[in-house]
Amino acid sequence: MSHDASNIYDADAHKAEWYDHIQTNTDDVDQVKRLIGGRGPWRILEPFCGTGRILIPLAMEGHTLVGMDQSKGLLGRCRKKVSELPDLATRVSLIEADVTVAKWPEGFDLVILGGNCFYELATPDQQEGCIESAAKALKAGGYVYVDNDHMEGELDPSWRTWGDGKLGEPFICADGTKLQFSNETIWFDAPARLWRARRRTVVTAPDGTVKEAENIQQKHPISADEVRGWIEKHGFTIERNYGNTNDEPYRLDLSRATFWARKI
């Protein structure tokens, strides 16, 4: 996002295909459907929509979706999927924008901040800014769904030494293009729970041509208390707080911090 040097998903157009390969979970989509219940059809905004993993199934349920994403590559793949489903043409709109600085459209029944999207952001200010923007984007009585992993206390020791800079096993795309990635921690602030890494992408075309791209990315793993505080600060009342997509109430030992909150 705006704090980082560049968008890691736009290193090569093939990276959107790799993204789709690793992002296949549907449990959170089912959870959102349960939370909506029989209400609707709703007008829904999904910042960080990526290639449409959450957005498209909800549009197929009859809801109207607006997706936002900074990545030209991910959004392009999402547009292609939507174009192959003609019934969705009037129910899906996509906006290429950095959601941390762009003005969000307004008048929605639901804003989805899911898919671990806060782990794509560099600072707590950016993360809180998304909650504030969600409040402005929603109608009175509208809902925000916030779903991320969480980290309590200082930066987990495993993050402080994560990545050795060596290229991992290749991912082979449908056209034979080979993608390899490496990660290397270059800085962290444990008390502030900030982490920065050098991330490299190596692309080998079927003809043997090699292209490399490097990004510096910073992350701020959120704590559940941080998110709870931001939600309450910006005019929401929390109706559900889950620890996973099975709707178990939040506990410290569960992996997720998922909030369903209504704009007062």
Q: Overview of this structure, please?
A:
There is one protein chain. The radius of gyration is 19 Å and the shape is globular. It is built from seven helices and eleven strands. It has two domains: 8-152 and 221-263, 3-Layer(aba) Sandwich (Rossmann fold); 157-219, S-adenosyl-L-methionine-dependent methyltransferases (Single Sheet), CATH 2.20.130. Helix 5 (124-137) runs parallel beside helix 7. The longest helix has 14 residues, at 124-137. The chain has a seven-stranded mixed sheet with strand order 3-2-1-4-5-11-10, with helices on both faces. Strands 6-7-8-9 form a four-stranded antiparallel sheet, with no helix packed on it. The two termini are 29 Å apart. It has 264 residues and is α/β, with parallel strands linked by helices.
List the helices and strands and how they pair.
Layout: H1 15-22, H2 27-36, E1 43-47, H3 55-60, E2 64-69, H4 72-83, E3 92-96, E4 108-113, H5 124-137, E5 138-149, H6 157-160, E6 171-172, E7 178-189, E8 194-204, E9 210-219, H7 224-233, E10 236-242, E11 256-263
Parallel strand pairs: 1-2, 1-4, 2-3, 4-5
Antiparallel strand pairs: 5-11, 6-7, 7-8, 8-9, 10-11
Helix pairs in contact: 5-7
- Strand tally is 11
Strand content: 25-35%
Uncertain regions: pLDDT < 50 for 5+ in a row? none
CATH class of the largest domain: Alpha Beta
Number of helices: 7
